[in-house]
Amino acid sequence: MSKFGALVMGPAGAGKTTFCNSLIQHLRLNKRSCFYVNLDPAAEDFSYEPDLDIKDLISLEDVMEEMGLGPNGGLIYCFEFLLENLDFLTQALEPLSEEYLIIIDLPGQIELYTHIPVVPTLVRHLTRFGSLNVSLCAAYLLESTFVIDRAKFFAGTLSAMSAMIMLEIPHVNILSKMDLVKGSVPKRQLKRFLDPDASLLEDGNNDEDPQSRAFADPADKESVMGGGSFKKLNKAVAQLIDDFSMVSFLQLDVQDEDSIGGVLSHIDNAIQYHEAQEPREPNDEINYGEDGMME
User: Fold this and answer.
1) pTM of the prediction?
2) Residue 182 to residue 186: CA distance in whole angstroms
3) 82 bridge partner residues
């Protein structure tokens, strides 16, 4: 039996959990089944209670207290523990039918899927080598306010590309929190960030007086961030992204149902969700339990 899922990831503060909540609400309004999995062992507040929560297996707070680890080390330990107990996931996901969209919310520490093979190993279990055979799509969120600082935007885009290469599954890259920039960034300029290329960085560079830079304090942060070496590094990153030409973005405003629906349609297409669905009778209804989740 086929299963379908979306792996929601991105740096801290990108709005991953908010996106998950909006996506669940949108699916409910459209009478679609979903199964919400929280894999952030530090998350506490949820608008929709997860159907499966990693904290029922292990929590970051307990690991930090008992192992004497910091937040990042503790998080890596939690995921390594999860990989040793994959039955925790398998037993919960195995009964799900092809009608369900499995929404998996990951923590914001991007090293989990760009630097170390923790999440890639988890993805392989969910897709190819495990018994679940989930058709999985990654939804990578990047905060749209990054477009104001183009060096930061290209750094975020590079992390998205790194995740695409590491995970080897279909990807939908998303600029989140569009409501924060719509009034400050012109629409024509904003569209250029949806398909990033190196010319964006060149257009964003302000001409400075080389003589004034020569007398700048080398310990000053602004001097370092505006120096020639930093610009060369940014140019190399932008050119690398341009050469691979893998990353493009969708716009997301969680307050706009059409925006959420548009992102969902791209996810559905990536995992070929609709092709596996049986025709539904007009009178078919989805029942909701007392907790608001689908039965």
Assistant:
1) 0.86
2) 7
3) none
